[in-house]
Write a structure and sequence with these properties.
The complex is a heterodimer of chains A (110) and B (209). With 110 residues, chain A is mostly helical. Helix content of chain A is 65%, strand content 11%. Chain B is 64% helix and 6% strand. A two-stranded antiparallel sheet of chain B has the order 1-2. The interface between A and B is medium-sized, with 22 and 27 residues.
Chain lengths: 110, 209
């Protein structure tokens, strides 16, 4: 039970970076973001994504536009803002440093 | 045979069993409650309802009814609100990191380790004393020498809640126990206790004389 908690925390910390990265490529419908995250096993329960999208939008890192849909009501499409883009770059840099630091630390433990 | 309801979820017209509706309603309310203090509650709820409606539509073909099983499946896919994280999560993290002693530890009566009502063992967990017998002896001494112990015990019995949930038990024992926090809580607790006892003895004296 404890280990699952730790894994969930690790994933949660990096989820934000992944969402920013996915949205920076193209305008995205949340369900498509979910699909990408699930394919990579970055997300376990879908409910995690929506509060995060709202928070990132309120912080000015994301924005959305409404688009008509053929099936059902209009859809929100999320895109990255300039500020979000620069945050994403910083996060990627941090992640690269972190992952190489962690990897070399792990190697020593072997 | 079951009654059905027509609902509008995320702008989609859906047909749902009444018991499934109750379950779904309960689930959505629990999410709403979880994000009550978050900015953008409406956005979050809109997106989640929209997604749930979409999933129902993918799952149920036209003219089929949403059953309890489908609602349970949706709950598994979406997850429990406490797994969602979001603002509430980070807020409570920052809050609890500052006044750790006050939020981390609370006085409860200990229902699993009791002689009378669990007051003594509750007190000893609060003050970080390993054996409640010490507190119990103090109560006996104060009771024999003037009855103060008995009165204090009864007041604490009434005033202090019994630990019921797991979080109560955690709060009773305190999550972060280190030398400083124990020393602090013992000091504060003793000061409180002394004040209470002073007040009490003053009260008794004025009533007696």
């Amino acid at each position: 039970m404890k280990i699952e908690n730790t894994i969930a925390q690790m994933r949660k910390g990096l989820l934000e970076l992944c969402v920013l990265a996915i949205v920076s490529v193209d305008e995205m419908y949340p369900s498509d973001i979910i699909k990408k995250l699930k394919d990579q096993e970055m997300i376990i329960v879908e409910g995690t994504l929506y509060p995060m999208l709202t928070r990132l939008k309120n912080e000015g890192l994301l924005d959305y536009v409404w688009k008509e849909s053929n099936s059902g009501p209009p859809r929100k499409y999320f895109k990255i803002t300039e500020e979000g883009s620069s945050i994403k770059d910083q996060l990627i840099k941090t992640w690269k440093n972190l992952s190489s630091a962690v990897n070399s630390t792990i190697k020593e433990s072997k | 045979m079951k009654k059905v309801m027509h609902i509008n979820l995320g702008g989609r017209a859906l047909v749902i069993d009444t018991d499934a509706y109750d379950e779904l309603d309960k689930y959505l309310r629990s999410i709403e409650k979880h994000f009550k203090n978050s900015q953008g509650l409406e956005d979050i709820m809109y997106d989640i309802e929209n997604r749930i409606a979409e999933l129902f539509e993918e799952e149920t073909h036209r003219n089929t009814v949403i059953t309890m099983a489908k609602v349970e499946m949706i709950k598994n896919t979406m997850g429990h609100p406490r797994e969602f994280g979001g603002e509430e999560y980070t807020e409570s993290e920052t809050k609890s990191s500052i006044p750790k002693l006050k939020t981390g530890k609370r006085l409860f009566r200990h229902p699993e380790d009791k002689v009378i009502a669990g007051v003594a063992s509750g007190l000893s967990s609060y003050f970080g004393i390993s054996d409640p017998i010490i507190i119990r002896i103090l109560f006996v001494i104060f009771t024999v020498s003037g009855g103060l112990g008995l009165i204090t015990y009864i007041i604490l019995w009434i005033a202090v809640p019994k630990a019921k949930t797991t979080s109560d038990f955690l709060a009773m024992k305190g999550e972060d126990i280190n030398i400083d926090s124990i020393a602090n809580s013992v000091e504060n607790g003793l000061k409180d206790l002394k004040n209470k006892l002073d007040d009490l003895s003053r009260g008794i004296k004025t009533r007696m004389f």
